[in-house]
Amino acid sequence: MSKVLGKKGEKKGRNPGGQNSSRLPPALSIPQVFITSEDDSTPPPIHKEGFPMNMMPQSQGYTKDDDAASTAPLLDSGATTPLCEEPTVPYADMGTFLASSQKLKSEISSEEICLSSFDADKDLETCSKESEGENQLNLPDYPFVKWPWKYIRVISTLTAVLAIVACFSSSATLIAHLPRRCDPSTEWWQGKLFYEIFPASFNDADGDGIGDLRGITMKLDYLQKQLHVDALRLSSICEANNYPEHYLDIVNASKVDPHLGDVNELRVLLTDLEKRNMSLILDIPVDRIPGVIGNSKVADKQHLLVENVLRFWLLQGVHGFYLKGLDTFVHQPDLWTCVAQWKTLVDSFSSRFSKRRVLVVSSDFIHQYSLQHPLLIRNLLNQVDLLDHNLNLERPARLEEQIRDGLIWDSDVDKPWIMWNVGTVGKSRLANSLEESNGCVFPLGVLMLALCLPGSASVLYGDELGLLSTTNSSISELESTSVMQWDSHCVDSSLESFGKLSEIRKDALPLHINAILKYDNDVVESRSHNYAFKMLPNNTVVIERFYPRRHRYLLILNLGIRNVTHDLSKTYFGGFALVSSTGRKHGYVKLHELNLSPGEGLLLLLDK
Fold this sequence. Notes:
- By secondary structure, the chain is an alpha/beta fold.
- It contains 16 helices and 25 strands.
């Protein structure tokens, strides 16, 4: 049953002026509020202050109903007439009003509030029906309202946190794996240090007076940790008559000479080299292979003999070959095709291993072939990875020319790299080249020259210790095959300086790289050498090495037999001393009055 807070009067009110009721204006629509209750049928008392329209002041969002206010004086002011002094209608705060009504509903035991506007002629029964639920205010029942939002919030938070952690972890991993330096990539033989060994004179492991392969294996720590060598080059180890005196008188090019050991010991040596990330190159005297020796041309039969020898040693795991004796066949125009087929065989083994297999030839052979077959020299160069170029220091005045003669073959990207050597088997040792000099100073100074030129470098065993040429009791024909003197007096001075120099060279890009390349869309746009050479009076050599965005290095070497003093301050102010062959110069060195003793070399890190 409905309870009425304000209801329509059943009788027409009289106005104070006693005017006729027939002059009253038509009935207006006045907002009414009905509250229904299923458990209470007693009408509530009617109070003016209980009327919902007067609960909120006008200043809080209600608008004044001027029509209702104009008719209020015409209504009967009896007890049954609603008191409407200033009727107002909710406007802006309708949501607040509805929320208050909902609260009121819960307080009066599920009473229903119906806010409706009806005409004055509409009877009470119509409004009662509406209040009973026909026009109740119902919010839409959206599906997402019933979702488990508590769990959704937890899952979303955890997902966001995990995503942030994953981003930070990925960033940290990428940063950790970024290269510390952005240097141009090089192969294992490019810009590296090679160490040439005559096995019979290096180290004797079994005490028979002749060095062997096991003796080389025992000295790998010395070669790696003290000299920082990257690869070994072994003179011929093939079985020969009366080895080692006549080591080139080969009887079986596919067998290790018994004086040196056997194939198993060679495999052990190769295994230990691989563990140290070092490599091994074998000298193969092509013109001394049985079946080839004595021939003036490499025909099909001789070509197959050489190919079989190369295949045998490749199967053992060697990393490349120095093809010697090709000068014998330099007159043969199609010799480059034979070398190309050998190169194809070598490349076929490169795919089986992590390191590529390489071919090395002498620059003297390349020079002679170019003179006789100038149109074919490019084809030959494309089959070679390294060119061994010897510097003759008996004529230091021609040193600049010798360097240019070597670099002329390294004038393009696809050309072989140069391997500089200042001492090799068959030539006089460095320590004997300048008799009046200190035997420890001069060899080290010259080795500094080889290690500071563009490309790779090769060092003959013992030169780092100032080993002198002596008559070997078993190898009388080769003075450079002196037995290694492990207790040399230069061990403390030269060895430490040489090891420091080779270590610096590994990390110093300007010292070991052979050129500066400029790219345009991954295509080489230009190529230029990264060195400057100058010969000063009294056979003093100055070599500057540089590379974009890197420190510059300066080598100053006295190849003369007298003390010299030079003023280089017009070009170079000074630099930090990295290596001194005498060990007497340290710290920052000014170049306005630089004094050098005979054979002394000085490597400086220049000011930026």
